[in-house]
Amino acid sequence: MTHIHIHIPAREGRAFAVAAGQSFRVIDAEGAQVADLFAFVADTTGEWLSAEHTRVALGRLFPRVGEGWCTNLRRPILTFIADDSPGVHDMLCAACSPSRYALLGVRGHHASCEENLRGAMTDLGRRDVVVPQPVNLFENNPILPDGALGIEPAPTRPGDSVTLRAELDVIVVVTACPQDITALCGGVPSSIDIELLTT
Amino acid sequence: MTHIHIHIPAREGRAFAVAAGQSFRVIDAEGAQVADLFAFVADTTGEWLSAEHTRVALGRLFPRVGEGWCTNLRRPILTFIADDSPGVHDMLCAACSPSRYALLGVRGHHASCEENLRGAMTDLGRRDVVVPQPVNLFENNPILPDGALGIEPAPTRPGDSVTLRAELDVIVVVTACPQDITALCGGVPSSIDIELLTT
Questions:
Q1: Which of A123, A142, A133, A109 is nearest to A36 (CA)?
Q2: Is residue B115 helix, strand or coil?
Q3: Tens digits of per-residue pLDDT, A5-27?
């Protein structure tokens, strides 16, 4: 087994192709870092990993190892094959975006997962991409007793990872979330590493 | 105050324009009926009511009366001004679609909220519409202690309603959910009425 390594600096995003059957690891390099993950079916512009369809398919709010995630056409797209982390992930919250930071009081430009996604897809020639709700690896949004959604720091330590297998030929986009206003990334956004596993 | 009335037969959907400041009621005419609700900003194709952005804005999983819902650009789009129903609504689950019924074992065509949405928007000349995750009025998807999402019949009685106010000029689409395989609509899909309130 050989590995192709992709480093995603803090606050940035990267797109990479994963063939059906191929697996990849998303590694929280420095700890307490959220990785927003998107996946698009490679040969079409109309099908992508969909959190809202995956919630229905799984009958659950949060992903668990061993389960499959599906597209907006309800086809299996990624399987969550290993979880070497505390097991806390989110699939309820929209990616951060310029409007999110404006509402949080930021003036001027602030990097965001939505802009990272658009940039990474534009680099591949896919403009006007739909922005699906991502699966937010390592993100800790606990459901409180009154039905509120909490925002807690990611509980990951350096080197924690999840491993996913592609069930279709996909373009995956991972962004190292630039959130430094809320506690989500422990206050200090840091980097994410990707290992593409080639058997 | 005058009313414009729109009847939505069982298993069908309708689109209607609502001006900023105008309110409308969504009425469960016969009881135990889910109404999938979508809203698109009228003068653009790129902005719509977004459940995933609304969850973040509210910090909650389910909508409550008095709160505002927002777009994918996080602008207020609808305000939930009255709830004359048991108060159970969903904003976690994708609209039913042909793939949902295929996976539930249906052979051949089955009406769906996604197709109802596409049809209603096509009638207005808006093809290739993005299918956002709807707010599912009266839909009862309780969160179970183990984190699973339940599917229970809508608890509404005939005449129960919610009232929403548009904060932008919008096209609203409401579909009387055709779900008759799960318990969601009590097994028998029925009709929805809309009252557009004109002051």
A1: A133
A2: helix
A3: 999 999 999 999 999 999 999 99
**3-state DSSP assignment of residue A102:** helix
Contact A147 B61 (CB under 8 A): yes
Type of residue found at A71: T
Angle between helix B51-58 and helix A51-58 axes, rounded to 10 deg:
90
Per the rule left: phi > 0, alpha: psi between -120 and 50, beta: everything else, A153 is: beta
Nearest to A192 by CA among A166, A154, A165: A154
Sign of the Cα torsion B119, B98, A130, B38 reads positive
From chain B, the residues in CB contact with A131 under 8 A are: 72
The pairing of strands B160-166 and A2-8 is unpaired
What are the tens digits of pLDDT across the range A24-63? 999 999 999 999 999 999 988 899 999 999 999 999 999 9
Distance of CA B71 to the CA centre of its chain: 15
Cα(A196)–Cα(A120) distance, rounded to whole angstroms? 17
Residues of B with CB under 8 A from a CB of A: 50-53, 55-57, 59-62, 72-75, 92-94, 97, 99-100, 103, 130-131, 133, 143, 147-149, 151
In this prediction, the answer to ipTM > 0.90 reads yes
In whole angstroms, what is the distance from residue B163 CA to residue B45 CA?
25
